[in-house]
Design a protein that fits this description.
Keywords: Membrane, Transmembrane, Transmembrane helix. By secondary structure, the protein is mainly α. It has helices at about 1-10, 15-40. About 90% of the residues lie in helices and about 0% in strands.
Length: about 40
């Protein structure tokens, strides 16, 4: 039963949350990368 809960955590709503945070972090990195390129 605990194994099933762990599986639900991996493939359930938290997966979407990780994807959302990954997108936000990706945008921030892309933004700062653009700033550093324009600074050079």
């Amino acid at each position: 039963n605990a194994y099933r809960d762990k599986k639900d955590l991996q493939f359930g709503i938290p997966y979407k949350k990780i994807f959302l945070w990954g997108s936000i972090i990706g945008l921030i990195i892309f933004y700062f990368f653009g700033l550093s390129c324009s600074a050079l």
